[in-house]
Structures are given as structure tokens and as C-alpha cells.
Amino acid sequence: MSLLPEKYRHIAVEGPIGAGKTTLAKLLAERSGSTPLLEDPDANPFLPGFYQDPRRYALPAQLFFLFQRLHQMSELKQSDLFKRATISDFILDKDPLFARLTLNDDELRLYQQVYAQLQPTAAAPDLVIYLQASPEMLVERVRRRGISYERTIAEDYLFRLAESYARFFYQYDAAPLLIVNSEHLNFATAPQHFELLLERIRDMRGAREFFNQGE
Asked: Is residue 30 part of a domain?
């Protein structure tokens, strides 16, 4: 049996900062022999400034990520990457979520004009895995992983981000969605958790399903 069903040629793993989306995306790609398509926050020169002075750096940080994601999706369209399955740790549709959260009214109008002019389009993934965790857990994980520029992230920002993701995916219907409560899951260090998730992916039948593994 193949690790992932053949119908899932593009799986996107999503979730707020600290949910574990990049870790899971890398693991899925490595174990299944798929092509990883990952965001590169370290390449964004405005991100450290954003966490220290959001008002000053929100717009350039947001636009950099928009152009980065558009470039990645454009490469995906133009290449032969889809000869192998692709695992990404983002969907393009979530970009405006951050814009509405971080930009003031004038900046948001400018961002929306840029977004509309570029008319970003990307085929919906075959499956989106949305990793949920409580805001308190997100704060704990971000602090624990110790990335230098993340030390100044305000806890209030992480709380608002988690809420924005919850609202976004409550209405999301562009692709089949597996909502995973990741509170008590560690896919990197607990192989049994990863195997349970794989089983849940293989058993997906509906357009929106849930995976909630207790302690």
C-alpha cells in the first residue's frame, strides 16, 4: 500500500505559527517521496522588524510573503513537479488572512489593490490538513523552539492569529479539509501519532472531517 492515496497529488498543511505545519509537511514529503514546497520565512528581511515594530514593518513583510508565495506557485505550475506528489506548508488563499490581521486600513486597501492586480490564482490542493492548537499551546511551542526573531512575538498576536485561522477554516470549502487537533500530537518524535494521521488521511471520505486524538 502506498503511503498516501494516489488521488492526493497536492496536500497542503496549514495552521498558525507554532501549530507544527512545516514539521508535518517535511515529514509527509520525506516519508512519501513527495516534493516539498515550503515557505521560507528566513528569506523575508522584514520579518524580524515586524515582530519588533509591527506598525512599521507589517506592509513590507506582508508584500514580501505575497510575492514569495506567488513565485512558488508559479514555479509549481511551470515545472514538472506534479509528476510527483507535492506537500506544501501553505495555501495561497490564506495570505489575505494575515493582511487583515496586521495592516491598518490604508495599508490594507493598498494590499488589496496589489492582490487584485496580480490576480493570484492557484489550483486548490487535493487535501488541506489544518492543524489546530490552543493559543496557550501555540505560545508555549513558539517560546520553546527559540527562533531569535520570534522571541518578541506578542502573545496577543498569537491569540488573534489562532482565532483568525479558526474563522477562516470554518468557512473554507475550496478543497477537502482534515481538521487535526494537534494539542497532544507530536508527529516528529512519536511515530505512532504519524501513523494514526496517515490512517486518517487514507480513510477520508467527506469534504470536511476531524481528527482528535486525546492524551
From this structure: yes
Residue 2 lies in a domain: no
CATH number of the domain encompassing residue 128: 3.40.50.300
Structural domain range at position 50: 10-212
pTM: 0.91
Rounded to the nearest 10°, the torsion over CA 91, 94, 98, 99 is 120
User: Which of these, 6, 10, 1, 7, lies nearest to 29 by C-alpha position?
Assistant: 10
* Secondary structure letter of residue 208 according to DSSP: E
Contact (CB, 8 A) for 131 and 22? no
- Is the predicted pLDDT of residue 81 greater than 90, yes or no? no
Name 1's Cβ contacts closer than 8 Å, sequence gap at least 6: none
| Number of domains within the chain | 1
Residue 93, CA distances (Å) to 48, 165, 166, 174 in order: 24, 12, 14, 9
